[in-house]
């Protein structure tokens, strides 16, 4: 009797398992795993590409041409007028500007900088043969020397364009060019004479001059933070022409109406600067989560 009950119970469990297993499998099919959370998009720049910049540097200056108006003509051919020397010192400079990054390759900015005072010295010599006073004398005539000492400072405003040449290991080489204006100020220059011009002929008044300027750039930019870049660069800068005021002679009866020009003032600059991108970076909004499409369940099939 007991054995027959056990047999009936075993058959009942087997039947229940055969009926319930397909239902459990189908129930599992109706509960798919939840979709993975969406990936956060990369940050986007909301500053519009605008940036601020600041630079400091040192400069080696060079004078290519030097002219004195009416000087040789006043002295006369027998005076043997000639220029003895032209020297200019070095400068330091500091500047700031605002620019725009158009894309990964092209950017431009407008800058202004102040260039510190540099020493300026030039000389000339001649025989004291004013108005033919050496006629009847045998050369060589006694010569006089005028050596003028003063200073020159400048303000330079430029519009620049740059091409970034790609980025490797966080370093971006670039080249560029610029054009603008240089505002020069020459100081009063005192003549320290020598030879027959001992004591000097006079002083040259200072003068402000505006001239065309142009530049060529090359350098490296490095990322400090996502918004801040460090620049190290070289610049060739041609600052055009600076002029002096009129020569004021101690002896007005022999004073020519002379001014001097310093042409093609060249600067070889080494500079360090920073560029700061405005606006910063923020994350873009997440896209809406769309439920995955699930096909309708098939008919329930029971197998006994």
Automatic annotation (TrEMBL):
InterPro entries: Beta-barrel_OMP, OMP/PagP_B-barrel. It comes from the Bacteria. Keywords: Signal. Coiled coil: none annotated. Residues 48-276 form the Outer membrane protein beta-barrel domain. SUPFAM superfamilies: OMPA-like. Residues 1-27 form the signal peptide. This is Outer membrane protein beta-barrel domain-containing protein.
